[in-house]
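Quick start: what a row looks like.
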Amino acid sequence: MSLIKLQRIVFVFLVSVISVTLLAMEPPQGKGKKPDKPKNEQKEDREDLKDVQEVVGLISALISTDDARRFAGESNLTGRKPLPPGTRKNLAKGKPIPPGIAKEKVPSNYLKKLPSRDGFEGRMAGTDLLLVRSADKVISEVLKDVLK
């Protein structure tokens, strides 16, 4: 057997051993796929979220998306561009408004048509209408595509 053939065989063997070793290793702490939760734990998590929302004082907008959309049309606020999908998914009930999102106050002619809530304010972000707690800017409700 020639020296070149022996080197190739040793090289293939070493690459194989290294590959198998890397595949068998555990992912680093906090990385990799998380195990699925059993259905009963998922249900408990949703119930816990409802409890948290009640405790932190999140409320409903008390208006349907269709009514809000109709009022937006009457107030000439439609035709806005949506936020990019990655940014838009960060607008969620119970989360603070993410920094860097262009959020505008709702104009007074539109605000007069919406139900008012003490301690809350309306904000526009892309095509979405947000009900935000004034004290800490936590989103209480997201009405999607109202300003589309």
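That is the whole record. The chain has a mean pLDDT of 78. The radius of gyration is 26 Å.
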